[in-house]
Amino acid sequence: MEHLPLFIKIKHRPCLVVGGGKVAARKARVLLARGARLTLVAPKLCPELVALQSQFIWQNDVFEEHYLDEQFLVVAATDNKEVNARVYQAANLRGLLVNKADDSKRSAVIFPSIVERFPLQVAFSTGGDAPWLARLLRARLDALLPKHWGDLSRVAGKLRAKVQGAFATSDERRRFWARAEDDVTLNHLLAQGKIAEAERWLKQSIAKPQLGEVILVGAGPGDPDLLTIKALNELQKAEVVLYDQLVSPEIMALIRPEAELIAVGKKAGHHSVPQEQINQLLVDQALTGKRVVRLKGGDPFMFGRGAEELETLKEAGIAYQVVPGITAAAGATAYAGIPLTHRDHAQSAVFITGHSKQDGKEPNWASLAQSRQTLVIYMGLMRSAHIQQRLIENGLASSTPVALIERGTTPQQRVVRGTLSELGVLAEQVVSPSLMVIGEVAALADSLAWFKPQGSTEAAQAVAQEQYA
Known about the structure:
By secondary structure, this protein is of the alpha/beta class. It folds into 4 domains: 14-111, NAD(P)-binding Rossmann-like Domain (Rossmann fold, 3-Layer(aba) Sandwich); 149-206, Helicase, Ruva Protein, domain 3 (Orthogonal Bundle); 213-326, 3-Layer(aba) Sandwich (Cobalt-precorrin-4 Transmethylase, domain 1); 334-448, Tetrapyrrole methylase, C-terminal domain (Methyltransferase, Cobalt-precorrin-4 Transmethylase, Domain 2, 2-Layer Sandwich). It contains 18 helices and 19 strands. It has a 5-stranded parallel beta sheet with strand order 3-2-1-4-5, with helices on both faces. A 5-stranded parallel beta sheet has the order 10-9-13-8-14, with helices on both faces. It has a 5-stranded mixed beta sheet with strand order 15-16-19-17-18. Strand 11 and strand 12 form a beta hairpin. The protein is elongated, with a radius of gyration of 30 Å. Residues 459-469 have low confidence and may be disordered. S-adenosyl-L-methionine binds at residues 221, 297-299, 327-328, 379, 408. NAD(+) binds at residues 22-23, 43-44. Keywords: Cobalamin biosynthesis, Lyase, Methyltransferase, Multifunctional enzyme, NAD, Oxidoreductase, Phosphoprotein, Porphyrin biosynthesis, S-adenosyl-L-methionine, Transferase. Residues 148-205 form the Sirohaem synthase dimerisation domain.
């Protein structure tokens, strides 16, 4: 990297823009918005600059070196490369900060892409290599950052000393601000522009006891791009994260680096940490006053024992939230090209777990063996032969299409297809985590599949075509 990202106070500083077109107008707007004392040299102004003319000094002239006298920052933004080069060379010889609009590689200063919630600013650059990528990132961040965060920043600035006096450690202060940013009342006041009320609310909150909280977060089926925005926000505010084996490494990498990670290791076939111990860990961590995230694969309320954990927290009087995640039945089937419902094939979808109930009771196989419905079975590999037998015994045709989706939505995704009569044998060909889909819609995977995981013939051909194109 050749450029050092800096925020420079430009207010009241003399700045020069050479050029009168759209590029010059774009640079001028950025400088004027930050209070620069701007001079613009150009024999003609575009309509955008004409509209701004009262805010800068216009020298109706071609560039001469004396216009560089006493300037702090210079921008060469004409449509003539030779003129831009002359401006750059003259400014560079004087040791001035200079931006050459048509040559960011040689510029001492680059104008970054900016997402602004005054006084909050997020600025970034690709060093001139990929301006389109910077624009794309700007659009994404602009959509992600709440519009009222500028007001939140101003209010936080006013109360910064008060918060530092009330909380002795940086962890306590970070915890306070994380909860404030998350509070529905405060966000509502700021969104409505009620700044004074928001400031009073924050002052009152400083005096309240700082209690621990648990956030139950669904990590989705594996693809980190399927993580919800709220889930990402919680991972980046967490102080402690209790996570399951099914959470992908890519999602784990998004957790705040300073957070304490506790593996509770639940996966098909064994639990390295008993559920009762997980429940107690959540309580113990929250009682220390920390912000605790319980991170689960898929959705916390879909065969994830999330309700059991919340019941324990409620009994202990600990505050909690739930952040839903995309469950495997929705995510893995979509990536495999299998619709859960289809007007011609399935009017309903039923989700069940393949694990036996502790009391030994079997599900209602007669209701599950209905035609024109989709049966999605979680954690069913170990009982696949039994599932096959019971469904056929209760009237579901042995020729019914089935699909086993291994590691759905990840680059390692694999789909094994066949019929119900082959289910037990097919299950031996896949590993956990896998999802079982039984019904006519499973036959659509061949025609509707769109996702190209690593190792697939189609993916390899696509890579080869890109390399030799």
